[in-house]
Specification:
Length: about 350
């Protein structure tokens, strides 16, 4: 890309973007031209971004990335920033507002879109995966994908609204008041889901992980029990807690092949499972148990547009504090350290500063 210097630009440095130049491993922090908001679009000066597992897949260029990502492109989809330009026809937003963006850009014409089930659009295009993303000084997205934050949210919290949305969308699938909740996977999303479950009135919140650093983080974030299924067992946790009939609701948030069978072994009859974790291969489960125990299992993808965003804001406004999931902060120029921290699995959420 060539460097363009718009005459009225006020940045003190050339415009930066974290760029995937070709269908191969690696990323480059490049100088790039300032994007322009087209009709119906909004240009945002990015302030903070969060690193998602998706970004790590794109950096290393694994089989998923090779099949799903439209390189070359600017990557990144978890962000917050301020609106600096409204494209033609955009009247519902204001320059200066602190915003994040729903990263799933929908077609608007398929059956689900027309029915208002926009999160189920079959033609979704993803920011930072199929179109230029937010790991840059500026990002342009459709105005309809912009979420304006309330005063309860600052730039750092706004940067993790996308994965917080995954946690909220999963956690609110089934009623949780008074219920016992099992979460497999204490990654950032599992940790935030645990906090949501507690906030909306679950009785016991138990989380499992095979990583002791993340189990320790989960304990600091207030789960009742954080268990390593390799050295202990979820059945043992049930005994410790005096539970007799199994968990009422489970969230699968690890993608690990043993997690879903672990859940089925520890769920009450009639139990409900929301599955967010993305396994990299097929998983074998005991279907006879699923049938005879009358289990409901539901796949969860993304966030509901835009009910989840309203719920996220309401949860924060009623005192839910998820900030302790952010463990590492780096300037964008030190993106390599930020990616290394995210890849180490010893961090919670890793945030990069573009301001
Ligand atoms: P993450 O990889 O940071 O966390 C997953 C955690 O699961 C890790 O801490 C890992 O140690 C743990 N784990 C591994 N094996 C386990 C086992 N046997 N039992 C319990 N825990 C185990 O991921 P994240 O960012 O928190 O995301 C959670 C999952 O959701 C990932 O699988 C991710 O790919 C997926 N995801 C799905 C969507 C969606 O829209 N469906 C969106 C974002 C992320
Ligand atoms: Zn559609």
């Amino acid at each position: 890309m060539t460097v363009v210097q718009p005459p009225n630009r006020r940045e003190e440095h050339p415009l930066r973007a974290l760029y995937k130049p070709s269908a191969a491993p690696g990323l480059e922090l490049i100088e790039c031209p300032e994007p322009v908001a087209g009709p119906g679009e909004v240009k945002i000066r990015v302030e903070r971004t969060g690193i998602c597992g998706t970004d790590l897949h794109i950096e290393s260029w694994d089989a998923w990335a090779a099949s799903a990502v439209n390189a070359p492109l600017i990557i990144g989809h978890e962000f917050s920033g301020r609106i600096v330009e409204l494209g033609e026809g955009v009247t519902s937003l204001e320059v200066g507002a602190l915003v994040s963006g729903e990263g799933h850009v929908i077609c608007g014409t398929c059956r689900n879109c027309r029915a208002g089930r926009r999160h189920m659009c079959k033609n979704t295009s993803s920011v930072g995966v199929n179109r230029n993303g937010a790991f840059a000084d500026y990002v342009v997205i459709p105005a309809s994908n912009v979420w304006v934050h309330s005063d309860a949210v600052d730039a750092e919290l706004g940067a993790i609204f996308d994965p917080f949305g995954n946690a909220v969308h999963t956690a609110l699938q089934f009623p949780l008041a008074g219920e016992d909740v099992l979460i497999t996977g204490a990654g950032p999303i599992g940790l935030m889901a645990a906090k949501v479950a507690r906030h909306v009135g679950a009785r016991y919140v138990v989380i499992s992980d095979i990583n002791e650093t993340r189990l320790a983080l989960a304990r600091r974030m207030g789960v009742d029990v954080a268990v390593n299924p390799v050295t202990s067992s979820i059945a043992e946790v049930q005994r410790q807690l005096g539970m007799k009939e199994g968990f009422d609701v489970a969230f699968e948030m690890s993608g690990a092949p043993t997690a879903l069978p672990d859940i089925l072994d520890n769920l009450a009859h009639g139990g409900r499972i929301a599955v967010l974790g993305l396994p990299s291969k097929e998983i074998s489960i005991n279907w006879a148990k699923l049938v005879t125990h009358m289990i409901t299992i539901k796949g969860i993808y993304g966030r509901e547009m835009y009910e989840t965003w309203y719920a996220m804001n309401a949860l924060i406004q009623t005192g839910l504090d998820i900030r302790d999931v952010i463990t590492d902060r780096f300037p964008a120029t030190d993106w390599q350290s930020a990616f290394a921290a995210a890849r180490s699995s010893n961090a919670g959420k890793v945030v990069m500063d573009w301001s």
